[in-house]
Amino acid sequence: MKTAKTIPVENTIELASGVKLQYVEQGDATGTPVVFLHGITDSWRSFEPVLPHLPASIHAFAISQRGHGDSDRPAAGYRTRDFAADIAAFLDAFNIERAVIAGHSMGSIHARRFALDYPERTLGLVIMGSFLAFQGNPEVASFRDDVSNMTDPVAYDFALDFQLSTLASPIAQSYLETVVQESLKVPARVWRDALEGLLEDDQTAELERIASPTLIVWGDKDAFCPASDQQALLAAIAGSRLVTYPDVGHALHWEEPERFAADFAAFAEKLVE
Q1: CA 20 to 30 Å from 30, out of 147, 228, 230, 241?
Q2: Whose CA is closest to 204, among 141, 137, 133, 140?
């Protein structure tokens, strides 16, 4: 399997809505289109460890969603349907009819919302460290309490502790510092608004409508998303498949980037056979 050799270059694109999104792109332009969506307060750099391990046949885009990274931070528009509409507009900008949508944590909820609202444009769905719902999750409730009174600038130690909580094993210190710095770019209001958007959108009753081939990837040391959520997702999404990584935490693609890239590529390649 030939992997992508080029180093992704950061670019910015203005959507039809006027919102500008930061993104990186790699792979064969005629290959299988993929959009990677990061978790809350992360950016495209959440997939930086994964991209070098993807085959060149994957036309990969990793984007910094609105409010995150170096993308625009509009005053409003942080509900899941706003993020899903951005994905559709992003595909429009590149004249891509259908794509595999892959999301981690918050990004997995946005990916699911896209699959629900734009089924004809969803070639496949990959959800990593995904919650059945944010409502009723004690870890989410604690996180909401923490950010409810947060002010700018966001404290370094808070961002560090948040990112460390997503891990079951250490990662390179330099990369940990990268993701902490990306979190610190996000204004306190976006931490709150994006989380409220996730709490507002309970997709539980809708999941059975997802018709796209779906891969669920989960680390069994995930401190946020329990095994029961993964089984419920597996049961609700017809034809879905669950892959479990032993001794891996919520940010499974940081701890096991090469394995995730291989599992993702195998899934994506089957979609175009």
Answers
A1: 241
A2: 133
